Amino acid sequence: MELIFATNNRHKVEEIQSAIGDKIKIRTLSEAGIDIDIPEPYDTLEANALQKARTIFQLSGIDCFSEDTGLEVESLNGQPGVKSARYAGNEKDFEKNIGKLLSELANHDNRNARFRTVISLIWSGKEYFFDGVCTGTILHGARGTNGFGYDSVFVPTGAENTFAEMDMKQKNQYSHRRKAADKLVSFLQNVASTRLKFE
Ligand code: IMP
């Protein structure tokens, strides 16, 4: 059993593959021989994730899923949200995005935020969604070097370290992406159990 994961972000692939285990082999876009940068033009994570999954399904004809994630900051009215990747510009530069976030938050005491992931799955011709949320707070400066994106300024609720100070196993105890991936796995185990031999 193989699924294409519509991404080339190795961090996302590692996080999702560790949730799914080795019963399902995930192929990235480059492993599937697909070389495109799929636009994310919509206003919701759901619409962008679905667009990515549909694009890849049309190109490959293979069951596939995509995910879209946003960082929603309470005192910024949910921004950067669906625009998280391009918050500081189209070059999708993590450091610039963090710089902009910290400067926008400079005068705010409320630093509550949450990551939200939406997975869109195309499975046997039908479309499904799974989501995952991780609440936390935004620090005043970056800490740690692991991970990607906003990891170095985000401390999940119940933790003392930023995601960037955690290894993947630790991040997965809190991760929005992991929660969404767990729902995807349950779906595949329950609905597709006749096609998959899970232990
Ligand atoms: P994407 O559009 O789903 O690739 O994600 C939007 C942006 O959110 C990414 O470019 C990252 O900056 C950020 N992001 C997504 N997931 C995470 C995460 O798990 N940790 C930190 N930042 C993330």
Report on the structure:
The chain is an alpha/beta fold. It has one domain (2-197): Alpha-Beta Complex (Maf protein), CATH 3.90.950.10. 30% of the residues lie in helices and 24% in strands. The protein is built from five helices and seven strands, in the order βαβαββαβββαα. Strands 1, 2, 3, 4, 5, 6 and 7 form a seven-stranded mixed sheet that branches. It is globular, with a radius of gyration of 17 Å. The chain starts with a strand and ends in an 8-residue tail after the last helix. The structure holds inosinic acid. Inosinic acid binds at residues 40, 68-69, 71, 84-85, 92, 94, 97, 115, 147-151, 163, 177.
Describe the SSE topology:
Elements (H helix, E strand, L loop, with lengths): L1 E4 L4 H11 L4 E3 L17 H16 L3 E10 L6 E2 L12 H12 L6 E12 L2 E13 L15 E3 L11 H5 L3 H16 L8
Parallel strand pairs: 1-2, 1-3
Antiparallel strand pairs: 3-4, 3-5, 5-6, 6-7
Helix pairs in contact: 1-5
This protein binds inosinic acid.
Inosinic acid binds next to strand 3 and helix 3.
